[in-house]
TrEMBL record:
Pfam families: 5-FTHF_cyc-lig. PANTHER family: 5-FORMYLTETRAHYDROFOLATE CYCLO-LIGASE, ATPASE INHIBITOR/5-FORMYLTETRAHYDROFOLATE CYCLO-LIGASE. ATP binds at residues 12-16, 139-147. It is an enzyme of class 6 (ligase). Belongs to the 5-formyltetrahydrofolate cyclo-ligase family. It comes from Sphingopyxis witflariensis. This is 5-formyltetrahydrofolate cyclo-ligase. Transmembrane segments: none annotated. It catalyses: (6S)-5-formyl-5,6,7,8-tetrahydrofolate + ATP = (6R)-5,10-methenyltetrahydrofolate + ADP + phosphate. One of its GO terms (molecular function) is 5-formyltetrahydrofolate cyclo-ligase activity. Coiled coil: none annotated. It comes from the Bacteria. GO terms for biological process: folic acid-containing compound biosynthetic process; tetrahydrofolate interconversion.
Length: 197
């Protein structure tokens, strides 16, 4: 009998490689107008959602990911933004408050993160970077499962994925540990994928 979990993992890895290339290429070749306006202001529905949360999980972009920190400047100035933090190369991801001017340090997964001294928080809204997505809330991330474990431990938190439109696929292969998104924001649109928004 074939190992279906191994086959699914292989499908996801092949898709991840393809979409990472697509993301990097698209980000590197943005036209000037798109570069100026992409992710600079949240669409009205998202602004209302952001205003409703005292703690908002975001991320420091890398590898062609959309840079959403300029879009969140108002909430950053109010001290409501938190970024992922890893204490070590372990499964557990937390969030720590971050404001403009606060240092970012290289984390164990080579991502930029707040220092160990920044205060921990549990955001009620998470804006997470994607490698790929579909219109049903399916998401594919870097492959470490950090966001899925965080979402499972904090089921009430709203989950909004951030991606370039070229990262969309018809259907993301999924398994029981994959947790669906409530929405996806691209440079073109806000796609509502769940019934919690």
């Amino acid at each position: 009998m074939p190992d279906l979990s191994a086959d699914l993992a292989q499908q996801k890895q092949k898709l991840r490689e393809k979409l990472r290339f697509r993301r990097r290429h698209f980000a590197a070749n943005l036209d000037e107008m798109t570069r100026r306006i992409a992710f600079r202001a949240p669409p009205a529905p998202l602004a209302g959602i952001l205003n409703a949360h005292n703690s908002i999980g975001a991320y420091a972009a890398c590898g062609g990911e959309p840079d959403i920190l300029p879009m969140l400047a108002l909430w950053t100035d109010e001290g409501r933004i938190a970024l992922p933090h890893h204490a070590d190369r372990i499964d557990t991801m937390t969030f720590r408050h971050w404001q403009s001017g606060d240092a970012l340090v290289k984390g164990p997964w080579s991502t930029s993160q707040p220092t160990d001294t920044n205060e921990s928080t549990s955001p009620g809204l998470i804006l997470c970077p994607l490698v790929g997505f579909d219109r049903h809330g399916g998401r594919i991330g870097q492959g470490g499962g950090h966001y899925d474990r965080y979402f499972a431990a904090h089921p009430a938190a709203l989950r909004i994925g951030i991606a370039w439109s070229v990262q969309e696929v018809d259907t993301v292969p999924s398994e029981s540990t994959d947790i669906a998104l409530d929405a996806v924001l691209t440079e073109q649109e806000l796609i509502i994928t769940g019934d919690r928004l």
